[in-house]
Specification:
- The chain is mainly alpha-helical.
- It has one domain.
- Helix content is 48%, strand content 5%.
- It contains six helices and two strands, in the order ααβαβααα.
- Helix 1 crosses helix 6 and helix 4 crosses helix 6.
- The longest helix is centred in the C-terminal third of the chain and has 22 residues.
- It is globular.
- The N and C termini lie far apart (31 Å).
Length: 126
């Protein structure tokens, strides 16, 4: 994680000094119930490389807006109801990657993602 990312997250009270990124592997895809993404390229990649997982891939903004709350069935059933494999990625769903931007851009991005997670998290529970 970049120093700008760490600084932006620290401003939201989030710290993970041991974070390491990893390439997405098939076993990760197989084990996941849900894969949240930020960009149309992510959805395209998943649909091409892992078509069997297309029904469990969605943008974080779509999940924060459209996923039914946890009390209305299992997460798997609520994801099926969204018909994710056939949904086009719409412009409002994209979370812009701050790479190359200054610290202010990273802070804006961190605030956006934090707000989306805050809206999404209560919907995940079963």
């Amino acid at each position: 994680m970049s120093s700008r990312t760490r600084t932006a997250l620290a401003g939201l009270g989030v710290a993970d000094p041991h974070h390491l990124s990893a390439q997405l592997e098939q076993d990760m895809v197989d084990d996941a119930t849900l894969i949240a993404v930020f960009e149309p390229m992510h959805v395209s990649y998943m649909r091409k490389k892992h078509p069997e997982a297309a029904a469990k891939v969605a943008s974080l903004p779509r999940l924060a807006r459209d996923l039914s709350p946890g009390g209305s069935g299992t997460l798997e059933a609520r994801l099926r109801a969204l018909d994710l494999a056939d949904q086009p990625f719409e412009a409002w769903e994209e979370v812009i990657d701050p790479a190359g931007g200054d610290l202010a851009v990273f802070k804006d991005s961190a605030r956006e993602i934090h707000a989306l997670i805050t809206a999404f998290a209560p919907r995940v529970g079963t």
